[in-house]
Write a structure and sequence with these properties.
The chain is built from 17 helices and nine strands. By secondary structure, it is an alpha/beta fold. It has a nine-stranded mixed sheet, sandwiched between helices. Strand 8, helix 10 and strand 9 form a beta-alpha-beta unit. The longest helix is centred in the last third of the chain and has 28 residues. The two termini are 29 Å apart. The N terminus is likely disordered.
Length: 475
């Protein structure tokens, strides 16, 4: 709370400068500026990212409501098993997406990405808006497990919910954006009342989440799906008949693509016609479809022997291979004078940057509202800051000998617990309890309790001036 309050009290001024600057330009000028050198630079850029992060972690409903009213959210929607989770990972550049297959996602997962300071570590905070799990920071490695555990609370009795899990991720290499991954739409069968109820419940949840104008729908479907059987195109055309806020993405675009390649013996016109026939049936004026070769769910995504950064690097390598495969297809036909309308829309890295730039542009245009809300929150929190600082001043100093010894003992115990529980680090998988204890006895020589007793005895023997019986009881 104190950190949030301090951020609001100290961090508004640079934002105000950026807000005034953007209030003086038109939307078209803002777009031109973004595409040339970008409006987010220096102190103002850092302040904006920090402010959005504070809002995301804050309990202030006003702040969250103000930002939610204009911050674009990219809603990934489609049928079940259409590679939405794989696409989500590729867009974020993070091996985070919950991959269940079939009906595994029972409530939306909303990812808020913030660009952190250069050299900073990647951090994650999870908020459960349904109140069924406590909010708080989690290790990046445990995000998928936490999502899976929370989804399990909707599995029995089987149901779906509209209140999302919010995953706030801050890292130096991230592109700021907000992604919302939805459960897959299903078709109810008249002979199965439960499937009819599921279909209606999911449609209601879709309607609820797409209602705000700042939500940009990403219609996701496998490239092999016949457009006449699309689970998402009819919904997208209904809620966005002009196509102004829908992006269309075909996944698994490289599956069987060698059969359509320049050396396949097929005629150019036939291959062009194949892609036109497999494209979405879209409203007139809709943008070109993105044909993305999505990564497969390979072992490295959940390999606990790899660091998170190593998994992220492997994900980027897999993305590069997929993009190269699609580019080879385009280049092969281009050498024969054959071209495709979507040839500029085959790279998820390009789509990722486009979405991040659009997010920045939208936020920049509405900065005056954000600054005003932060100012109001700052004024209300000044007293909170003062009160919290007074309380902190009354607490025992953190550098006292007793506090240091207790912290040391607590850390020693944490190391022991980690080997069994593995909340922050992978547990000693494959070892029995007796084997773990044997290693602890051999390497650590004593338990945390024994260490505390030894420390206390040494403390007494030294007759340190800070020693008293009360401290002895605490330790």
């Amino acid at each position: 709370m104190l950190c949030i309050a301090r951020a609001l009290v100290l961090g508004v001024a640079p934002l105000a400068v950026l807000a005034r600057r953007n209030a003086e330009v038109s939307v078209h000028n803002a777009v031109a500026e973004l595409e040339s050198e970008g409006p987010f630079e220096g102190e103002a850029a850092t302040a904006l990212s920090a402010a959005l992060e504070v809002v995301g972690k804050s309990d202030s409903e006003e702040l969250r409501r103000v930002v939610a009213s204009f911050e674009p959210q990219y809603m990934l929607a489609g049928g079940t098993s259409q590679a939405k989770d794989s696409l989500m990972m590729m867009l974020m550049g993070l091996p985070f997406a919950f991959q269940a297959g079939g009906i595994g996602t029972r409530i939306p997962c909303l990812y808020r990405l913030f660009k952190g300071e250069p050299g900073s570590e990647l951090t994650t905070v999870m908020r459960y808006t349904d109140g069924l799990t406590p909010d708080g920071p989690v290790s990046p490695e445990s995000v998928v497990t936490k999502i899976e555990q929370h989804m399990g609370k909707y599995a029995s009795p089987s149901r779906f919910g509209e209140k999302p899990i919010e995953i706030l991720v801050t890292g130096p290499d991230l592109n700021g954006a907000v992604y919302k991954n939805m459960m897959g739409r299903v078709v109810g069968r008249a002979s199965d009342p439960e499937s009819m109820k599921n279909s209606k419940d999911i449609d209601d949840i879709y309607d609820y989440h797409v209602a705000d104008d700042n939500v940009i729908l990403m219609a996701v479907e496998k490239a092999q799906t016949n457009p006449q059987n699309s689970m998402i195109a009819p919904f997208a055309s209904k809620i966005d008949p002009t196509g102004k806020r829908t992006l269309w993405v075909k996944t698994w675009a490289d599956f069987g693509i060698s059969e359509q390649g320049a050396d396949s013996g097929r005629a150019c016109a036939d291959v062009q016609d194949h892609f036109r026939q497999m494209d979405f049936v879209k409203p007139p004026g809709s943008p070109e479809t993105f044909w993305i070769a999505t990564v497969e769910a390979e072992a490295y995504l959940q390999d606990q022997s790899l660091t998170l950064q190593q998994r992220m690097d492997k994900l980027e390598e897999a993305i590069a291979k997929k993009e190269a495969k699609m580019q080879k297809f385009i280049d092969g036909w281009k050498e024969q004078g054959c071209f495709f309308d979507f040839e500029k829309n085959i790279k998820v890295t390009k789509l990722r940057k486009y979405l991040s730039d659009l997010h920045s542009r939208q936020v920049t245009e509405r900065l005056p509202q954000l600054v005003a809300a932060l100012e109001r929150a700052r004024g209300g929190m000044r007293l909170d800051v003062k009160g919290l600082e007074e309380k902190l001043a009354m607490l025992p100093k953190g550098d006292s000998p007793s506090a240091e010894l207790r912290e040391f003992t607590g850390m020693y115990k944490l190391i022991f617990d980690e080997q069994f529980i593995g909340e922050r680090n992978p547990p000693a998988l494959g070892l029995s309890t007796d084997e773990i204890k044997e290693i602890q006895d051999r390497e650590f020589k004593m338990t945390a309790k024994e260490m505390a007793s030894a420390l206390l005895q040494d403390w007494r023997d030294l007759q340190h001036e800070s020693y008293d019986e009360a401290f002895g009881r605490k330790l």
